Structures are given as C-alpha cells and as structure tokens.
Amino acid sequence: MYNYIIFDIDGTILDTEFAILSSLQKLVLEELNKKFSFEELRFALGIPGEVALNKLGITNLFQSNEKWNRYLKDYLNHVKVFDDIKDTLVKLSEIGILAGIVTSKTKAEYISDFIPFGLADYFKLVVCADDTERHKPNADPILKFIELSGIDKSKTIYIGDTKYDMECASSAGIDFALALWGAKSSIGINANYILKNPKQILELI
C-alpha cells in the first residue's frame, strides 16, 4: 500500500513526554511564577517550542526556548526509543521501504536530541521546524518533504501521536496513522489507521 513512511519524532520514535513536560513545567514556574500540571501543558507536545511558549504568554521566546532546551537535558535519562521502533526501522530498510522524518524540532534540537540515539541512518530525508515558515498543524512541513523527495502522495503515510500531526497530514493530502504507543488515546484524532505497536507499521506496506 505504502512505499514511503514519514515519522514524527517526539511521542512516535522517542518517548520524550516526561522530559518535555517536566522541563517546561520548570521553565514556566520560573518565567511566569505559575505551576502548571502536565495535563495543562500537554498542548505543547508536537509543536515548535517557541510556538508553545508564545501560547503560554511568554514574551522572550528565543531566550526561553534556549533555557527550555537546557532544562530538557536534565531529564534526558527519562528519554528512550519506544520498544520495537528500531526493529521496525531495520525491517523497513531491509525490504526497501523508504523512511523519513517531519518534526517540530529545529535542526539544532534534532542534532542534540535525536542523533545520539543512533537511528538517523534509517531516514533518507528529514524536515525540521526551521525548514518551513509555517509549522504543524499547517501542511507546509509535509509539503516541503514531498517537494524535496518527489514522492507519490498516494503511496505515502505520516505516523505521529498528536492532533497536530493528523491535521498536518490531512491538509497535505496524505494518509495518517496514529502511534497509540505515544498518543495514549485516539479521542479527537481522525486517523486512517490506529497502531498499537510499531510493528504494525509493517502491515501497512
């Protein structure tokens, strides 16, 4: 069915939720003197950091995002590759299915937060937040990926864990599969497929 699989990173390849929300919680308490619960901050998962900070009413966006990234490093021991992701990527590579990434991480964040996990060689193309002016849920990141790769939309699917991912894929005119291992719930997400385990990706091809 599909010969090109595009992945999100946070909540899809890497289990980063605790690290992202804990470091954001710390930053917001420092910047706004307000304590937010994980649930109140969950909207920040899946969009660029500066966009999330702007929604929280933080004005010094660049400096605060830099600080958030520094705080994130304090929680890196909580970040891990989801079970069965690497095995799935190996299998996709072995059978000649191309894989790529569309992420809300900047290039610098991709290099510092993702490269160390040793999975980069499995992906033929990566589109980061600074590759487009508009970001998820806008279609531009996936459209940029399609433009650069020349792939056939009808043979391509995007795998992510948030409503932003679903809206990005839908607006770009490609199918979407929900990574339930990261999303935890499918409520409010209209996915073409709901996957409970990364190995189910192999059933889509």
Automatic annotation (TrEMBL):
According to the UniProt entry, its GO molecular function terms are:
hydrolase activity
Q: Which UniProt keywords apply?
A: Hydrolase
The record, for Pfam families, names:
HAD_2
- Cited InterPro entries: HAD-like_hydrolase_sf (IPR050155), HAD-SF_hydro_IA (IPR006439), HAD_2 (IPR041492)
Q: What is this protein called?
A: HAD family hydrolase
